[in-house]
Design a protein that fits this description.
CATH class: Mainly Alpha
Number of helices: 2
Distance between the termini: 46 Å
Number of domains: 1
Shape: rod-shaped
CATH topology: Helix Hairpins
Helix content: over 70%
Radius of gyration: 34 Å
Strand content: under 5%
Largest sheet: none
CATH architecture: Orthogonal Bundle
Order of helices and strands: HH
Length: 145
């Protein structure tokens, strides 16, 4: 297997890895967007419920205690969702970096393959020119003999 063939094989492997990494990155972005939307919904609901609670007058003490307990549950949910969101954001950044690394590796391999092809073409051109020079020398020698 020639050097060029080995690099072409390597390129195919890196392309496959890059495609998988791009797919994972896109899935992570979708997952992140979904969690961002959930966080916005939870935050809006929390603020709405808290405003209603702050503007509530009258009612029983037990009703107020229940509403405060529910507000505490919403606060815990909001905080938990934010912690999950932070983890998902980190995973998304990690997936993007992995894809980017493979993408740059693929580009470098493509450049190297192109360079090898150019070197091979130059070498072939030199061999062809040498053969032509030898042939023309033989013809010149035959004519003068």
């Amino acid at each position: 297997m020639s050097k060029l063939d080995r690099f072409i094989l390597l390129l195919k492997m890196v392309e496959q890895a890059e495609n998988k990494a791009a797919q994972l990155y896109n899935e992570q972005k979708k997952h992140l967007m979904s969690h961002l939307n959930q966080q916005k919904t939870i935050e809006a609901y929390y603020l709405n419920f808290r405003n209603q609670l702050d503007n509530t007058t009258g009612g029983s003490i037990q009703d107020l205690v229940n509403k405060r307990a529910y507000l505490k549950q919403l606060t815990d949910l909001r905080d938990s969702q934010q912690a999950n969101l932070t983890i998902i954001e980190q995973q998304t950044v990690k997936a993007e970096r992995h894809w980017s690394k493979l993408h740059h590796k693929r580009l470098k391999i493509e450049e190297l393959i192109e360079s090898i092809k150019q070197d091979l073409t130059k070498a072939d051109d030199l061999r062809t020119q040498k053969l032509l020079d030898e042939l023309s020398g033989i013809r010149y020698h035959d004519k003068n003999s």
